[in-house]
């Protein structure tokens, strides 16, 4: 369970919300460093929703650091997610599709490349190193290792829903109205 901080987290990042006030992403959580946030405020690209108590100053300006911002322009989330190692691991819940382990995760070609398998959403699965080595260049049935879920191309929405199962280690109290994890406040 993540800790909810009443003091700003290290580096004072801001939670970035889309124009509809939903986080741009849950995993990783959409956070910007305070320097980028101040620049976006000056460029009039974001609205400040909540602030930390800390103030930044220049010779002619001072402002409280934003802790939650919302983009003024809506960013569409309906494009297909990028095919990356991280997104494959996220799709599979950071667990081996053969044994359920969350240790030493690797890519596995369900249909081996040597047998015509392609590197694609529908043929790559998360496997732990021991299972990947055990399966080797064999077909799943031949190795006696059938994936517990079929590898498919996820939507961004599906990845976001899966990502909500993995809250970060810390959340600032000003972020809680915009995030949907069941957590308890700790000081």
Automatic annotation (TrEMBL):
Residue ranges constituting the HNH nuclease domain according to the UniProt record: 83-133
Keywords in alphabetical order: Endonuclease, Hydrolase, Nuclease
InterPro entries assigned to the protein according to its UniProt record, in alphabetical order: HNH_5, HNH_nuc, NA-targeting_endonuclease
A Pfam family matched in the record: HNH_5
Domain of life where this protein originates: Bacteria
SMART domains per UniProt: HNHc
One term of GO molecular function: endonuclease activity
Transmembrane region(s): none
This protein's record includes keyword Coiled coil: no
PANTHER family: OS07G0170200 PROTEIN, SLL1193 PROTEIN
Record protein name field: HNH endonuclease
Organism of derivation: Henriciella pelagia
């Amino acid at each position: 369970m993540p800790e909810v901080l009443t003091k700003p987290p290290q580096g004072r990042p801001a939670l970035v919300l889309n124009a509809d006030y939903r986080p741009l992403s849950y995993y990783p959580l959409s956070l910007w460093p305070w320097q980028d946030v101040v620049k976006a405020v000056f460029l009039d690209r974001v609205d400040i929703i909540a602030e930390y108590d800390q103030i930044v100053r220049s010779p002619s300006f001072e402002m409280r650091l934003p802790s939650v911002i919302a983009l003024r322009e809506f960013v569409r989330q309906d494009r297909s997610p990028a095919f990356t190692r991280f997104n494959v691991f996220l799709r599979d819940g950071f667990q081996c599709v053969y044994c359920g382990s969350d240790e030493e995760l690797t890519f596995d070609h369900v249909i081996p490349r040597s047998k015509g398998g392609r590197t694609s959403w529908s043929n790559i699965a998360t496997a732990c190193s021991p299972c990947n080595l055990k399966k080797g260049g064999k077909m799943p049935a031949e190795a006696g290792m059938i994936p517990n879920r079929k590898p498919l191309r996820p939507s961004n929405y599906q990845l976001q829903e899966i990502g909500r199962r993995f809250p970060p280690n810390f959340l600032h109290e000003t972020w809680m109205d915009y995030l949907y994890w069941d957590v308890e406040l700790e000081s």
